[in-house]
Amino acid sequence: MKNTLNALCLYCGSSPGKKPEYRDAAAMFGSTLAARGIDLVYGGGSVGLMGIAADACLAAGGRVIGVIPRLLMEKEVGHKNLTKMHVVENMHERKALMTSLSDGFIALPGGYGTLDELFEALTWLQLGYHGKPVGLLNVAGFFDHLVTFLGHARDEQFLRGLHHDALSVDANLNQLIHKMQDAEAPDTAKWLDRYKLAAVV
Ligand code: AMP
Known about the structure:
Blueprint: E1 7-11, H1 20-36, E2 39-42, H2 48-59, E3 64-69, H3 70-74, E4 84-88, H4 91-101, E5 104-107, H5 112-127, E6 134-137, H6 144-155, H7 161-164, E7 167-170, H8 173-182, H9 188-194
Helix pairs in contact: 1-2
The structure holds adenosine monophosphate.
Residues 11-15, 43-45, 47, 50, 68, 72, 77, 110-114, 117 line the site of adenosine monophosphate.
């Protein structure tokens, strides 16, 4: 059965990055979601690739939902013109709300914050806390080394094949969304049974 993606969560840099391709991809991400009628859920920032994606989505008539901790909002990095802004008390609440509001997660180029959010979404998928697809938009080869490293982690038997394969990767956004629509959540119940772990969901 296909995954219905009515709302997609974007993880991306609070910096714009070095190459213009990163900024172009963030703008294209925003306008593509608007054109496809998919809500954009993100960290609520006005800066970096985050701000570019949000502005492009709004400019194209799309809906943008931000989730930002009060501290960051008060530091005035929060976007002022979103369709809806949730101001939460801390980073844990933010991640949980971003997860529940979204039908899937996509990472664009970014730093620690982006990688933290991406790997949390993957860890929760692996453990069965959610069953939503996770994708990596590999803009200008930015994630090539990460993709190679994840293959290494699988080959060295720290990542099971089905969990390695649960991350959809593509350089083209429409193809990535297509892969995520078709993605199947890993069979967590079987995995838990094999390791005689208690069910977590
Ligand atoms: P980074 O990749 O380190 O720039 O962090 C970006 C990610 O962390 C985004 O997806 C946000 O959810 C969160 N984040 C980091 N910095 C900010 C900020 N100034 N405003 C809002 N969210 C931020």
